[in-house]
Amino acid sequence: MRVEGESLGLGGIMEAMEIVSPLDDDVISLLRVGQKVLLSGTVYTARDAAHKKIVTAMKSGVDCGFNVSGQTVYYTGPCPARPGDVVGPIGPTTSGRMDAYTPYLLEHGLKAMIGKGFRSDDVKKALIVNRAVYFAAIGGAAAVMKRCVKSSEFVAFDELGAEAVRKLVVEMMPLIVAMDIYGGDIYEE
After folding, report:
1. Which structural domain range is residue 104 located in?
2. I want to staple 21 with a disulfide (CB 3.0 to 4.6 A). Which of 5, 72, 103, 104 is the partner?
3. Given this model, what pLDDT does residue 14 score?
């Protein structure tokens, strides 16, 4: 399905495909590098400290707060919310810090990641083998991204504060496919 991005006040996004997380292989196979998407559904937040705890828990057979299979992880630590807001500004962090953990999570069913910046060759290969995608979020648009978050709840590692794992429900979050299952890499093109 194609929609106009103008309704979000995002003049730079002309047309985008609407997709819903959790994602499956049918949707993943449609996505190509450079394609604009509007993501709705469930997204989990996790930065590097949370990734280390998630992988350690999974390897030990301990509950990490959510089942990664089919899910999307957003590399972010939301700013504190003002009264009446669901979250504060929620921009992406540099994705390369998660590269050591990403292949393991992809092997266990993670389908998408949202962040900014380059990824390692190991991550790129793991995306292809495990049929997953990497989305780039709009840098510098944390205030716009927060408008897409409809609910937020802590699910694991509260001791990490802003970097704790949260379950978000998002609506029409504007993203760009940065790496796909066909070996495409927006940072190389």
Report:
1. 2-179
2. 72
3. 55
